[in-house]
Write a structure and sequence with these properties.
The structure holds two protein chains of two kinds.
Chain A lengths: L3 H14 L3 H15 L7 H9 L12 H4 L7 E2 L6 E2 L14 H16 L5 H11 L4
Antiparallel strand pairs in A: 1-2
Helix pairs in contact in A: 2-6, 3-6
Chain B lengths: L1 H21 L9 H7 L13 H9 L13 H13 L4 H4 L12 H6 L5 H4 L38
Helix pairs in contact in B: 3-4
Chain lengths: 134, 159
């Protein structure tokens, strides 16, 4: 038992650094299920969320403003014009591989585009959509 | 003979001067966070283009970063500010970037770009003067040589 705790800690640290989109989706799904029992991620809701024009920011009304209508394509930052690599993990293996990075960008971009932080359910739907995007 | 040797060396000297003025390579001590945090939304701007005091002001107001919220955790912010300040331009060379400091507002930047027509700055391919790579085709590599410049109309830059 005394040994189990350090091993568990090491495993947790390792899993915090590298993850797959499926791991992240499962994490957000279980968080959402705690708030809404029986919650199931929906790629359809995720797609709708991705395309929705929240209107919080005039220059960036939606995710698609920078990431284009197809998240499997490269995008462009609407203010700086810098190229943005594809958001969909199906097109870019660097995406959704580092939980801290994912949380950082959800926080930044949800605040900017949606006008508030996103819920676990929204993140689960979003990942459900992106992991299937081609 | 001595004159010949001098003549042979002169072009080299001139070349090295020109290269110095046109190259703004990313300093070797750049922390990984510089690319990850600063260069995800815009070009990895050369720290040399703003003076240390201006960088400090930029880094003190990341929650209002030219219309964007670019807040960082305290540790990352300090690492990046240290790097920018360490490699900042000399104030007497670049000048000041204004109250909300912009590297495109310094006297040095304006002097370097005073021949650029107004229409080019607002061209759809440019969007913002901070979009160095719109004309400086090798900007991402830290190279700003005149012969690498392609204007928004597709033509090479002509003095």
């Amino acid at each position: 038992m005394k040994i189990a705790i350090p091993i568990l800690l090491v495993l947790c640290t390792l899993s915090a650094q590298a993850a797959t989109p499926a791991d992240l989706l499962a994490g957000y799904r279980s968080e959402a299920a705690q708030q809404t029992p029986g919650f199931q991620p929906s790629a359809q809701r995720g797609a709708e969320f991705y395309a929705r024009r929240f209107g919080n920011s005039a220059k960036m009304p939606s995710c698609a403003s920078c990431h284009t209508d197809n998240p499997a394509q490269a995008g462009r930052h609407v203010v700086t014009d810098k190229t943005i690599k594809p958001l969909a993990p199906t097109a870019n293996a660097e995406r959704f591989a580092d939980p801290a990075k994912v949380e950082k960008w959800f926080k930044r971009n949800c605040t900017e585009v949606v006008g508030r932080e996103c819920s676990s359910a929204e993140k689960a739907d979003f990942l459900g959509y992106l992991t299937g995007a081609r | 003979m001595k004159i010949l040797r001098l003549l042979a060396v002169l072009p080299l000297f001139a070349l090295s001067l020109a290269a110095h003025a046109d190259k703004l390579r990313l300093p070797a001590d750049a922390p990984p966070a510089f690319q990850a945090e600063c260069a995800s939304c815009h070009l990895a701007f050369p720290p040399q283009l703003l003076a240390a005091d201006d960088w400090k002001r930029v880094m003190a107001s990341l929650d209002k970063h030219y219309g964007d919220n670019a807040s960082l955790d305290a540790k990352t912010r300090i690492v990046l500010e240290d790097f920018l300040v360490r490699n900042a331009g000399k104030p007497e060379k670049v000048g000041a970037g204004g109250t909300a400091p912009r590297l495109t507002s310094t006297p040095w930047f304006k002097r370097k770009h005073h021949e650029v027509p107004r229409a080019d700055w607002t061209h759809a391919k440019v969007k913002t003067p901070a979009n160095c790579a719109a004309c400086h085709t090798m900007a991402a590599e830290g190279s700003y040589r005149e012969r690498e410049i392609v204007m928004p109309n597709g033509n090479k830059w002509e003095d």
